[in-house]
Amino acid sequence: TGFSYLFSPSPDKPNLIFIPGASGEATTYAGIALLREESKHFNIIGYTYNATVPASEMTDTLLREFSKEKLGASEHLLLMMSMGNTVTHGAMLKTLQNPDYEGLFENSHVVSVGFLFGGSSKFVGKPEFVPKLASKVFPPYAAIFDMMNPANPIQGAIAGNIKEINASTKGISYIQANNDPHVDLKASAGSYA
Fold first, then answer.
1. pTM, entire model
2. Which residue has the higher pLDDT, 145 or 158?
3. Contacts with 178 (C-beta within 8 Å, 6 or more apart), sequence order
4. Residue 77 above 70 pLDDT?
5. 122 contacts 58 by C-beta, under 8 angstroms
């Protein structure tokens, strides 16, 4: 678990910090081609995490590691994919509740790709047997199904505090890649839901 450069860094480029999805691995097929291309313009810092631990532990670990590496000390681009959104939004929410982490993401220009409030989280949470069945069929991924489940208190807390989470950053752009009925496609002010 932790942050590392994925390509040789340069002091002349700003940082792009990438929080991956359910694999917990920054170099998976889902993002590596994009990151390789963006390495022409950014220092790419990838985060690797254990996606099999409880949801609260994922967010606490991200907070500790981000703080320890002082990644919020200067302006940067923070790119999150899929479940990485939920983990990071959960961490951002905790910065609003814990003075030790206050302002940790205030230099983050955030791009959120494939957030899980609707779409896939709907599938995971309903019908209710899906999370229980999935954790039995795919035991290593039980924590992933728990994190994505809209019944998880972290999901509800994020949804109820999305405005405050956004205000704790330089701004968040949401990109939903699927046909999610919770996204207002006519909105022009960057609103979600």
1. 0.80
2. 158
3. 114, 119, 120
4. yes
5. no
Mean pLDDT of the chain: 81
pLDDT confidence of residue 38: 93
Within a 10 A sphere around the Cβ of 77, how many other Cβ atoms? 18
DSSP H or E segment with residue 147:
helix 142-148
DSSP calls for 153-183: HHHHHHHHTHHHHHHTSSEEEEE--S--TTS
User: Per the structure block, which two tokens stand in for 94?
Assistant: 């905790």
Q: Which residues of 155-185 are buried (b: 16+ CB within 10 A; e: fewer)?
A: bebbeebbeebbebbeebebebeeebeebee
Q: Which amino acid type is present at position 24? A: G
**What is the CB neighbour count within 10 angstroms for residue 99?**
8
Given a contact cutoff of 8 angstroms between Cβ atoms, the answer to whether 87 and 59 are in contact is yes
If you ran DSSP here, which 8-state letter would residue 190 be given? -
Q: pLDDT-based confidence at 193, cuts 50/70/90? A: very low
Q: Which amino acid is at 39?
A: S
Q: Give the pLDDT mean for 58-83.
A: 94
